[in-house]
Amino acid sequence: xxxAGHPDYGHIGALVEDLLSSxxxxxxQQVVVIGQGNVALDCAxxxxxxxxxxxxxxxxxxxxxxxxxxxxSTVVLGRxxxxxxxxxxxxxxELTKLRKEGVNVSFLVRSDELDLGMTHASExxxxxxxxxxxxxIDKLLRQAAESFYDESTLDEKEISLRFLLNPIEFLPxxxxxxxxxxxxxxxxxxxxxxxxxxxxxxxxxxTFPAQMALVSIGYKGVALDxxxxxxxFDPQRGVVKHVGGKVAEAAGSKGGLYTAGWLKRGPSxxxxxxxxxxxxxxxTILKDLAKQPIYKKGGDIDKFLKKxxxxxxxxxxxxxxxxxxxxxxxxxxxxxxxxxxxxxNELLVAAGV
Amino acid sequence: xxxxxxxxxxxxxxxxxxSKDWFPKVGEPCEAEQDMLDLAYNPQHTSRLGxxxxxxxxxxxxxxxxxxxxxxxxxxxxxxx
Lengths: 353, 81
Fold this sequence. Notes:
A: 5-stranded parallel β-sheet, 3-stranded antiparallel β-sheet, 12 helices, B: little secondary structure, 3 strands, 14% helix
């Protein structure tokens, strides 16, 4: 992502700047974010805050410039209800606290949409396993829906969290077909069993004028070369087939292939979830090594990489990068933690390799 | 135990369960801590994030349970029973 300084996405800044500045002056500036995970909320929060509220953070200066005073209206929408939302409570809470922290952004949630999403199955989801975090989110969102914003905030910025809206069409501007004009959504209703509800169209539509739309709907695992042919990959779920982390053995293979993380479980969970997941896989590896030690000794990886002509940045090289990024003359303000390098070349020069 | 986020309440790797007798002395987690406990594996009523408990003389003898999901870095230390 450009605000994290990822070297592959430096070009996005100019594109975003272009789209955000193309606004017809009589219309409200609005961005639609499709998706309801933490990344979608992050995008909304960063875009709404603008330069003044992010200047002391480690957002790269080039990304910061693009944000200017912050996007006037951001709509974060998803096709299911708030109980099914992939976001976690910390990120929602940050949005509810913006005004209190002196950021002129209102966080808008509609109680009618919270009610619409409260099907009997959703109620059961709140009571079932994993219900504790969702119940706390439900309470917090209901509080947010009842928040009162006075008239003086009407001209300021807002983030709306909308539910049960399925985006079905991007339409261009009437007088400029090369640019996005609106996002058309269909109102949905939830149907199905707890834990498995799907969003079904109702035939009612809502149109959002938008200068830019961001899609943040998660990741799907991709098979490595040859995996599909060997039947080792489930393309529908985007995961490798495994037992306890050991990849299902292809005919004629020596075994010894393991998996951990999102490729193993699907794209869900945070650092903590992955730690448990990795432990499971490691237990399987150790069991296998005890039974049938194919590789008894760890190889000398430095020699191996050298033989293949692979250059490496070592930890002490990274420490050079760290020192360079945190140099006082590089930073916008004293409080800013660091000004990141955003191209691989700059990083290598700083590393001193 | 392992502390992946360096103690800033941004993960739940240091999740511990305080024994019931000691919980009143240790105290309830604040809202931000509760938000992270939501994401821990199997949080209990007396769960806390280890990084947020400040040890004082009053807590000498504190009894906690380290849940299976936490990485006990002392596992291989041969304590005398």
